[in-house]
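STRUCTURE REQUEST FORM
Protein name: RND transporter
Source organism: Staphylococcus succinus
Requested output: structure tokens
Priority: standard
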Amino acid sequence: MKNKKLWIFIIMLIVLIIVVSYFVLKQTHVIDQKQHSSYQTYTVKKSNALKLKGKSSPQTIKTYQENREIGEYIRPQIQNNQTVRKGTPLVYYDTNRSIRPKLVEDVKKMQNYIERDYDLINKHPNNQTYQQRLSKDQDKLSQAQQNLTLHDNKSSKDIYATFDGKVNYINKDIDKNGNILQLISNQPQIKTTISEYDIDKVKEGDKVDISVNKGDKKLQGKVIQIADLSTESQKSVDHASKDKSTPIQDVSKPSKYAVTVGNLNTPIKDGFTVDMNIHVNTIQLPTTVLTKDNNVFVVDKHNRVHKRAIITGHTDDKVLVKQGLKVGEKIIKHPKSNLQEGQKIKPSE
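Status: completed
Returned output:
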């Protein structure tokens, strides 16, 4: 009888040891490693360059028109097709009939009024009327100075070259629209559009390789501007500014955004068609690496996995990563729901 009880105790002890061992192995993932020992991984890499087409154009085109506030227009000061530097005088005015002397006189008059106000306040420091008059005259002086500054800035832009460029045409006499001459920037640029699915991949400063279709010319540039409004929205703004009815947008097509490429290392003629590769510094992932809560499992150098939150952008069939991963890191493909933080796995590409 004693032997029988002893054997029952031993058997129960063995069962208890097995149960405890199972849970210990379960918690340390040993059992899981045997059942799910191998996981496919994906090595994080940069997105491929975006391939786009575009058209070259001058960075700036400015038409100089008659400005009667400067004075009476006399003549141009340069020749047609002349190359000029920023600050070169282009248009000659008779400034004797300018409104500037009156604007200067307004400033001086208000300065004299303020000096008078201070004298009165010094003689009558407790007089509130003089204090109020001083405050009003200071406001009027500020407005007079602002008017003079605006006039000088406008006059400068209508007389001098505001950028390096070449004079395209000259009217010896002002045309019916008031045009005198046109200045074309020496700096070329390339205009293109990009889909809403790729807009988050591009940022200002991205390098661009450019191939000119005519002559097989190669050059480089950088992205210098990305439109905030889609081309459809911009058209709506333009129509509204002209008091026209807003066009109906086609919601069946993806939106496009204007992108400007500049800082070209080689000149290019206006109107040339080009092929471009924009080297984006973004990361794209296959959707198969995401967990149900849109996180990923990163594999460290010891083959242990760590759950990590990432910030994603807008794209079509892949995950665009804005923050949370680095190029070269390995992440789990098809992560299972029972994959746990710190679990050791056997990775396979």
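Reviewer notes: The domain at 50-57+187-279 is CATH 2.40.30.170 (Elongation Factor Tu (Ef-tu); domain 3). The chain has a mean pLDDT of 85.
Form closed.
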